[in-house]
């Protein structure tokens, strides 16, 4: 088994997939770092101060102004109200929600990347793990060796799990290093409030407690790893089912993008919460923003994703071991 | 010579409602090259894919060195090496890395064995180059090296000379004969060219529409099917002479066709000359695959 995984790792590395994905990540992180820098500078110019309290106060006022306008949809209004309540809570407790420094950037970045960017990167790797063997024709050599088919697929899946872990790690390391050059490397121990929960239209602060930023980031990366693994598993299944890598990627891409669109629309379609793609934004539960539709909690989303992942894995193995290869 | 290495009994494959393979039976013996002759679409490749476990047969059994492909897959696969259609290996790895890759999938492999097979197919000089840079002939040889890694008793080659140049084809033929005669392998070669099968096989199975319509040793097949074309002057007198010495005389334009019977044609020729007939041309001719089929299926065409 180890030698099979070794085979798969060699192929993955020699195809330069990992390298390409890491490079894409590096480029994107640099871009976002620069954007973040410009944003901070703009705020400072506008307010003429570097004190975070006045910045936060200004943000609250801005949001409240928007809320008083009549053009806002109910969903969006709810989101904004909860955000204001949260910001006010930070202000009242004299805690800076965005302590300057690389760790804060990493935290913000993973929160934004978990729903689309990370799954896309994982998809690039997972979508051609099996289907590339078909398009090359090497599957015929691979399956006529004295090794059972399920072992070959398992070795590929283990490779996937390893590359997901590697990419999440690289994501963290790269975003820390690149943003650290600009924002400084400090801020791991800054306090973060977590435990907000949304009940109806109100923000419940009963369970709110302080944890240090590194623990918070660790939790977020754990969730990101899980989301990536599930998306990877589903892309892997498509790779088994569809012989063409491009078609498999297309289907997965459509699902992911549909997920981001649906998340902002499903408040009136409650049963959509059982779709995997609206459950990807796990970190929002830590932040305490309102979920896309009622009845969604961290536990619920984890459950839905687990079921989708297991089903995907089951289908992959059943199909792969039974399929006729032409 | 009589040890059976591969045996196929009652093999069938139904896809949807179409019977693609209908009841195929044959056996391969140690040290022989067995030809699988049939037009494109006759079911050669489908049969070969069933032999190596890529496709599940609907009915029938396949055993390799006594191990059933469906029940003892890994045991059976240890004794077989194959190239199905083109030799498809990883273009982004070197030849050596490809061999290493597949050797990791075979129990108790040593590095010496990889050196051995590389030397056997004569790829020593380019083995560390990327496969992407190989010519088709080299890829074909690397494919064979890969198939030979596990010291198989049965080697299956699907259209091994497809796309090779004449010298490549000759080398391949020699190599296949060498494997069977010196290494004692059973080799199954599929082809749609009779000339090819004639040059390298000991026995041949002719397959059409998913059925084996004839299994025969190549020698017998040829002596049965070979024809002799005569160009005679004057023709009518010549035909009379030939009709006296042999039963089968056919006239096709300016040629007269008889069976080719090595022991007797000299005598026939002598008689023609004595009768004052000039023999302008004597031509031994191998029937085309199409002729064979028409002969064997009683006039049905290939498709």
Automatic annotation (TrEMBL), chain A:
GO molecular function annotation: ABC-type transporter activity
Q: Which GO terms describe its cellular component?
A: plasma membrane
Is Transmembrane given among the entry's keywords? yes
Q: Which UniProt keywords apply?
A: Membrane, Transmembrane, Transmembrane helix
**Name of a matching Pfam family:** ABC2_membrane_2
Segments traversing the membrane: 18-37, 113-136, 157-178, 223-242, 249-269, 298-320
Q: Does the keyword ATP-binding apply?
A: no
Q: Which PANTHER family match?
A: BACITRACIN TRANSPORT PERMEASE PROTEIN BCRB (PTHR37305:SF2), INTEGRAL MEMBRANE PROTEIN-RELATED (PTHR37305)
Q: What is this protein called?
A: ABC transporter permease
Q: Organism, per UniProt?
A: Priestia megaterium (Bacillus megaterium)
């Amino acid at each position: 088994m180890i030698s099979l995984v070794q085979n798969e790792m060699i192929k993955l590395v020699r195809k330069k997939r990992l390298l390409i994905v890491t490079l894409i990540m590096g480029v994107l992180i640099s871009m976002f770092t620069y954007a973040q820098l410009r944003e901070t500078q703009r705020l400072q110019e506008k307010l003429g101060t570097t004190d975070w309290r006045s910045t936060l106060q200004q943000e609250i006022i801005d949001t409240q102004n928007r809320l008083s306008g009549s053009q806002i949809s109910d969903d969006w209004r709810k989101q904004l109200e909860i955000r204001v309540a949260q910001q006010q809570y930070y202000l009242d407790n004299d805690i800076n929600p965005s302590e300057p420094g690389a760790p804060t950037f990493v935290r913000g970045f993973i929160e934004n990347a978990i729903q689309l960017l990370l799954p896309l990167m994982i998809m690039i790797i997972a979508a051609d793990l099996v289907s590339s063997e078909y398009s090359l024709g090497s599957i015929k050599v691979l399956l006529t060796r004295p090794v059972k088919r399920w072992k070959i697929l398992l070795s590929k899946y283990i490779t996937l799990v390893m590359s997901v872990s590697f990419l999440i790690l690289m994501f963290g390391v790269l975003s820390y290093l690149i943003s650290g050059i600009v924002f400084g490397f400090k801020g791991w121990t800054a306090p973060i409030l977590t435990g907000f929960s949304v009940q109806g239209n109100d923000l419940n602060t009963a369970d709110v407690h302080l944890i240090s930023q590194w623990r918070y980031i660790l939790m977020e990366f754990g969730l990101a790893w899980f989301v990536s693994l599930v998306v990877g598993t589903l892309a892997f299944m498509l790779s088994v089912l569809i012989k063409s890598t491009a078609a498999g990627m297309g289907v997965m891409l459509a699902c992911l993008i549909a997920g981001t669109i649906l998340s902002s629309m499903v408040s009136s379609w409650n049963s959509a919460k059982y779709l995997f793609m609206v459950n990807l934004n796990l970190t929002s539960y830590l932040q305490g923003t309102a979920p896309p539709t009622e009845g969604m909690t961290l536990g619920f989303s984890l459950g839905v994703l687990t079921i989708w992942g297991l089903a995907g894995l089951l289908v992959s193995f059943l199909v792969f071991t039974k399929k006729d290869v032409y | 010579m009589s040890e059976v290495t591969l045996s196929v009994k009652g093999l069938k494959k139904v896809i949807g409602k179409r019977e693609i393979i209908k009841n195929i039976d044959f056996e391969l013996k140690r040290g022989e090259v067995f030809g699988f002759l049939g037009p494109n679409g006759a079911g050669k490749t489908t049969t070969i894919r069933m032999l190596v476990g890529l496709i599940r047969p609907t009915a029938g059994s396949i055993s390799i060195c006594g191990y059933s492909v469906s029940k003892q897959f890994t045991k059976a696969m240890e004794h077989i090496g194959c190239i199905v259609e083109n030799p498809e290996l990883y273009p982004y790895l070197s030849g050596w890395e490809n061999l290493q890759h597949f050797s990791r999938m075979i129990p108790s492999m040593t590095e010496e064995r990889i050196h051995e097979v590389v030397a056997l197919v004569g790829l020593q000089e380019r083995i560390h180059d990327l496969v992407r840079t190989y010519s088709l002939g080299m890829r074909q040889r690397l494919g064979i090296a890969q198939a030979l890694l596990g010291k198989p008793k049965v080697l299956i080659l699907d259209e091994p000379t497809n796309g090779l140049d004449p010298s490549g084809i000759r080398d391949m033929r020699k190599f296949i004969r060498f494997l069977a005669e010196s290494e004692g392998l059973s080799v199954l070669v599929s082809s749609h060219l009779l000339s090819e099968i004639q040059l390298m096989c000991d026995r041949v199975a002719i397959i059409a529409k998913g059925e084996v319509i004839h299994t025969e040793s190549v020698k017998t097949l040829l002596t049965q099917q070979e024809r002799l074309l005569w160009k005679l002057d004057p023709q009518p007198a010549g035909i009379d002479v030939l009709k006296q010495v042999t039963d089968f005389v056919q006239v096709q334009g300016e040629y007269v066709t008889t069976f080719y019977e090595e022991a007797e044609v000299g005598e026939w020729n002598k008689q023609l000359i004595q009768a004052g007939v000039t023999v302008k041309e004597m031509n031994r001719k191998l029937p085309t695959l199409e002729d064979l089929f028409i002969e064997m299926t009683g006039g049905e065409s290939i498709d």
